[in-house]
Design goal:
about 270 residues, alpha/beta, 6-stranded mixed beta sheet, two-stranded antiparallel ribbon, 8 strands
């Protein structure tokens, strides 16, 4: 057995929330089914190019809704897990070095990869289980990208990761155009950044009304939100905070969908920070 993880990043500096990262995890036993079904759904909907949050319009809204329902169906069936990470701007970190400030993007990304999927609570397998990580093209210079992947590889050395095994060659940069799961992560991640940064409230200065694209994106966010709520009937999902541990301490591993609002350990609450 092996696990595949697809990771993406979105808004780095938002008005209210920043450092958005997202990822999806699936075992090799389910990858082929998930990929083929998502691609078949895209073809049926005449979505022949890469689907992305920035492409959402009123004309494509129903198609994107159907694709998202297909994506969440795999979470409901226990074949896929999705994790979203972000930081609220009003929690201001204290005492950061110049190096930490300069490397904020990768340091936050590393925290997401290391902790969001609950590796420490993974089952104890009879043999080592290989993990393969696929990052959407990293946005920095080659040397910084390489150092980041070296840090991700060092996760391998943590004893509490049991028998999950990560090889350096299995940490790769990929094109989202070729990975439909990564495209779906982009849509979910983009919808969260959109809602949390109140982009659904933006109006044209001339008309005082929201544009058609903004309305379409808001409707797609609402659809995604309803899909999340359907995973946990009776649970009051809150988009801006950590998802509750509905399945006990192992929830980081077992739950199909989770949010992590990162709050620096040494931080100060500064109200109305943008």
């Amino acid at each position: 057995m092996e696990y595949h993880i697809w990771c993406d990043e979105s808004v780095f500096k938002g008005e209210y929330f920043s450092n958005f990262y997202g990822g999806a995890l699936a075992s090799s036993a389910h990858v082929s089914e998930i990929v083929s079904t998502l691609n078949e759904t895209k073809a049926k909907l005449n979505l022949h190019g890469e689907v992305k949050w920035v492409k959402v319009t009123d004309n494509y809204l129903d198609k994107y809704k159907e694709l998202m329902s297909c994506f969440f169906r795999f979470m409901r069936d226990g074949k896929l897990k999705t994790r979203i990470f972000f930081k609220q701007n009003c929690f201001q970190p204290r005492g950061l070095s110049r190096e930490q400030v300069d490397n904020e993007f990768f340091m936050m990304y590393y925290q997401f990869v290391k902790h969001s999927f609950g590796f420490t609570y993974a089952p104890i397998f009879q043999e080592k289980v290989q993990v393969k990580m696929h990052f959407d093209k990293l946005p920095d210079k080659a040397e910084k990208n390489r150092l980041f992947k070296d840090y991700v590889y060092a996760i391998n050395t943590y004893v509490n990761y049991k028998n999950l095994f990560l090889r350096r060659d299995d940490i790769s940069e990929v094109s989202s155009h070729e990975h439909v799961i990564l495209q779906c992560v982009d849509i979910v991640l983009g919808s969260m950044a959109f809602k949390l940064n109140k982009m659904d409230k933006i109006k044209h200065k001339d008309t005082g009304r929201r544009g058609k694209k903004t309305i379409a994106k808001d409707k797609l966010y609402s659809h995604i939100s309803s899909e999340i709520r359907s995973l946990y009937p009776g649970y009051a999902f809150n988009v801006g905070i950590n998802t509750g541990r509905l399945e006990g301490e192992r929830s980081g591993w077992t739950m199909p969908y989770r949010h992590w609002r990162f709050v620096p350990s040494n931080s100060a609450y500064v109200p109305n920070t943008k």
